[in-house]
Amino acid sequence: QVQLVESGGGLVQPGGSLRLSCAASGFISSFYTMGWYRQAPGKQRELVATITSGGSSNYADSVKGRFTISRDNAKNTVYLQMDSLKPEDTALYYCNAQHRLRTSNNYWGQGTQVTVSS
After folding, report:
1. What is each CA distance from 25 to 5, 15, 91, in whole angstroms?
2. pLDDT in tens, the chain (118 residues)
């Protein structure tokens, strides 16, 4: 059974930092591109960052220079280090796993809430 379990969300002041983690199980994560997406109230889900099994990363323009995605294939875990957080980063953050060849093999976690507020 495939599972993606996010953790690390919470309430933080503007300018602060959080580190999200996503633990994957039930599949070999090295075959998958892992990513973080977010959805704010009343808005569509949007890409935050992705990272391939080889370590190539891609970021949304809005988070470039502030967020860093990384992964540990041995631990089947992907991370999102978020620095210089802004109120507009407030959203439910989802972990995603996409098989690098089979588009139908696409999985989501349940989400972790990040709230940036003073």
Report:
1. 9, 33, 24
2. 889 999 999 999 999 999 999 999 988 777 899 999 999 999 999 999 999 999 999 999 999 999 999 999 889 999 999 999 999 999 999 999 999 898 899 999 999 999 999 9
